[in-house]
Amino acid sequence: MKKHILIVPGDGIGQEVTAVGKKVLEKIAEKFNHEFTYDEALIGHEAIEATGNPLPDETLEKMRASDAVLFGAVGHPKYDNDPSAKVRPEQGLLKMRKELGLYANLRPIKLFDELLSASSIKPEILQGSDILFFRELTGDIYFGEKGRKDDGNYAYDIAAYSKYEVERIARRAFEAARTRRKKLCSVDKANVLETSRLWREVVQALAPEYPDVEVEHLFVDAAAMMLIKNPKRFDVVVTANLFGDILTDEASQIAGSMGMLASASVGDSTGVYEPIHGSAHDITGQGVANPMASVLSAALLLDISFGMKQEAEAVIAAVDQVLKAGFRTGDIADASTPKDMILGTEAIGEEILRRL
Ligand SMILES: NC(=O)C1=CN([C@@H]2O[C@H](COP(=O)(O)OP(=O)(O)OC[C@H]3O[C@@H](n4cnc5c(N)ncnc54)[C@H](O)[C@@H]3O)[C@@H](O)[C@H]2O)C=CC1
Ligand SMILES: CC(C)CC(=O)C(=O)O
Ligand SMILES: [Mg+2]
Prior knowledge:
It contains 13 helices and twelve strands. By secondary structure, it is α/β, with parallel strands linked by helices. It folds into two domains: 1-103 and 269-356, Isopropylmalate Dehydrogenase; 119-255, 3-Layer(aba) Sandwich (Isopropylmalate Dehydrogenase). The strands form two sheets. A ten-stranded mixed sheet has the order 2-1-3-12-11-4-5-10-8-9, with helices on both faces. The longest helix is centred in the N-terminal third of the chain and has 20 residues, at 13-32. The relative contact order is 0.17. The chain binds 1,4-dihydronicotinamide adenine dinucleotide (NAI), 2-OXO-4-methylpentanoic acid and magnesium ion (MG). 1,4-dihydronicotinamide adenine dinucleotide binds at residues 13, 17, 73-75, 80, 90, 93, 258-259, 274, 277-283, 289-290, 293, 331.
């Protein structure tokens, strides 16, 4: 099969991990006889430095013209510590999501058995956890009107949702639940927020169309607690943009590390595949970032955008074998990991490639 893939590494460890994700795609093409072509484009801080714009038009055009995008991360400490900066790397990411209509962000929380001891949560609580988050990605407080008044002494961010926006993400989540354990948990804050009351109303109205799916509604504060207390109780979770952002960073501890969680951002056009983590300034340039989130994002790309199930499974199996062989990056190592089994980004990438 012929496919064109755009590589958008972005900032910080985005550069380091996406290099490994791309190599995995190249190896898959070779092994399964596909013809993948690649291009690269700028986003985030590196795009601001080069063009003054965190999402140059050229990048957006290249995204639209490709069959799928493998994305890294954006972000730079320069902006994190300067609240007054008007142009920011994260604006590029949000604009990309909005412009491409990527309203559904699928975040699978899958624990590899070998990593049971990498988490701070007890193994008996974790074992068998398998959750699929549907995070709404183009609405909510991230995209509403924002600003300052009273000489900058008053700030506001408006959270807004339309019925249509809630319905389309909820439908995707219901459909996914049907193919899994048939349980859907909708997370909101309907005891306080009007947007959440609309959210709950829409999910309740859809439920009769999916009688085979058991639906529950949880408030986000309780959901955050239950994720750690009993992660196995969750199957598919659907939630708003802000809640999904926060809950999935929390849920990364079920999988052992931020470095293990991949995601698929899909909707109206080209799909974008991205680790859930950011540019991780604290480890940038050290060559120690875990590239598995990018590699597993490449697997989602193959599966969802190209319908290449066997190829995606081969990638996941290679990651599994590397973990079974005992290799770890620092973030997923524990006290029992021998020092010589803790590898850097490139070296663990080579171990994955060797098993493909
Ligand atoms: N999708 C994106 O592009 C995102 C961008 N950001 C941006 O990234 C920058 C840093 O944000 P943080 O809050 O520190 O979040 P982060 O996700 O970059 O890092 C959080 C913690 O997890 C660790 N970590 C993350 N990915 C890892 C990996 N692959 N291997 C090993 N350890 C890993 C980091 O070292 C750090 O201690 C900020 O500028 C933020 O705005 C944050 C989240 C997502
Ligand atoms: C800039 C943020 C919205 C990125 C983020 O934290 C995420 O998408 O998970
Ligand atoms: Mg996040």
